[in-house]
Write a structure and sequence with these properties.
The complex is a heterodimer. By secondary structure, chain A is mainly α. Chain A is 82% helix and 0% strand. Chain A has one domain. Chain A has 4 helices and no strands. Residues 1-7 of chain A have low confidence and may be disordered. The chains are: A mainly alpha, B alpha+beta.
Amino acid sequence: MRSINKKGQVNTLAYSILSLVFAAIVLVFGLVISQSLRDTQTVGTDAYVAANATLVGLGTFADFWEIIVLAIVITVVIGLLLVVFGGRQGKR
Amino acid sequence: MRNLSCKRGQVGGIGMSIMAIVIAAVFLILGLVVLQSIRNTDVVRSQYTKDVANDTLITPNNLTYTQITTCAATPGGNSIAIRSVFNASTGALIAAPNYTLDSDCGIKVTRAGVAWTAVPWNISYTFKHGGESWTGTNQTLAGIANFSDFWEIIVLAIVISLVIGLLLIAFARKAMR
């Protein structure tokens, strides 16, 4: 059986969280910039409506962080278990 | 049987696994701190100002801060500036020294047993609040903070893989003999 660190997913956890945090910060700055740009426009104009729709659409990404976090956790946990169980099956 | 702590056993990898999850935890906490700091900046949280007239506040008291309705219901509501406060039952003016405000949307009576506790207040005020960026940042912060609920499962998975790995090494070798 190989070591956890070779095929397991634990070592990818730090990179995953770092990527997640980086993506979150980029998203947040994107939302701030989009909102600031929208507010430069007059309410009701085409530019304002489009910028507002963009901002709202971009903002829905924030609803999905929980799912992304869950997917990372599932990847790590199943990866760890596969190292043990999958490794044995592969050798037969 | 070979030494479990060297080549083929799982024990030797546990140090690296713990180091990996500690580094991951540090990244997570730093990320949460950064996101929270961004959320609480004036650019995100206090970008807009709203004026409210005669917001009814039910039964403020001298023990805890009661949330003022409209401010509390607005995303990122904070920094209330009171214009006037009236007793909603009698219409009497309640002067500024009789209440205190917190940095969010809370108000508290300064003294116990005065006539204006446990009666509705009508409050006119302005406050600052965030927009879509505050809402998105707050949701992002809450979503990423969910990760902290899963550390136990990740630790459990590491322990399970370690224990089963050790058992498989021991029993597989016996079977091979």
